[in-house]
């Protein structure tokens, strides 16, 4: 079954999820998207797990009451790590697709077996992340990978606000810290961008890491998984909706500006009370 007419909800704490939306738009050209940037409560990575879960539940509940969603993409690493299990329990009739740091794809690419992971403190501290890391590091593979985790306090917020000077300073600090973690005989050759904000600074990070380091993000795998989820599902509604609806809980004009700058989308965002 094609994805004609499906309505897909996408939410993030801010504008970082636009990196996932970019991949979704390319993968599902006939679907309709409702994107929520919860900028009033950003950044999620510096909130408690209970706060993130409570907020995520509220957003999903209200979004479902207003739009006929066929699936929902949690385009935030922190919200996925801390709340997607609770969301699936509450909304058992709605398929969810989450984003997680791409540890497995990175392990398949790495030659030195030393992989850097840049993510928020909330993502790195979550049980979901620890289980994924442990499964890969302690598997039966004789050449199992070793992950070097770097919490990137303030980076998502700096990217969110468009503070280029602070973004560069923080990227330099965290890349340097990662490079110091790896042993001399096994340098980091793969870097996981474990927050949806970070791909928008991929050029800066690549320059800091050098050409021998491969950057890995999650947008394309998430888009492919979303297409798979919708394959056998008939759309809930045939009501006309625009190709893209942008909603923000604070400063919608900032979301519009970023969508235009990063994705070339001239779609005005609306203020959304939640």
Question: What's the arrangement of secondary structure elements?
Answer:
Layout: E1 7-12, H1 18-27, E2 32-37, H2 49-66, E3 71-74, H3 77-90, E4 96-98, H4 103-109, E5 114-119, H5 121-124, H6 127-137, E6 146-151, H7 155-161, H8 164-181, E7 190-193, H9 202-209, E8 214-216, H10 219-230, E9 244-248, H11 252-263, E10 269-271
Parallel strand pairs: 1-2, 1-3, 2-9, 3-4, 5-6, 5-7, 7-8, 9-10
CATH topology of the largest domain, by name, is: Rossmann fold
Q: Structural class, from secondary structure content?
A: alpha/beta
Q: Outline the biggest β-sheet.
A: 6 strands, parallel
Separate helix tally: 11
What is the subunit arrangement here? single chain
Cα end-to-end separation: 34 Å
Spatially, the strands of the biggest sheet line up as 4-3-1-2-9-10
Structural features, described:
This protein is α/β, with parallel strands linked by helices. The chain folds into two domains: 7-99 and 220-271, Rossmann fold, CATH 3.40.50.1860; 103-217, 3-Layer(aba) Sandwich (Rossmann fold), CATH 3.40.50.1860. Helices cover 44% and strands 17% of the residues. The protein is built from eleven helices and ten strands. It has helices at residues 18-27, 49-66, 77-90, 103-109, 121-124, 127-137, 155-161, 164-181, 202-209, 219-230, 252-263; strands spanning 7-12, 32-37, 71-74, 96-98, 114-119, 146-151, 190-193, 214-216, 244-248, 269-271. The strands form two sheets. The chain has a six-stranded parallel β-sheet with strand order 4-3-1-2-9-10, sandwiched between helices. It has a four-stranded parallel β-sheet with strand order 6-5-7-8, with helices on both faces. β1, α1 and β2 form a beta-alpha-beta unit. α2 (49-66) crosses α3. The longest helix is centred in the first third of the chain and has 18 residues, at 49-66.
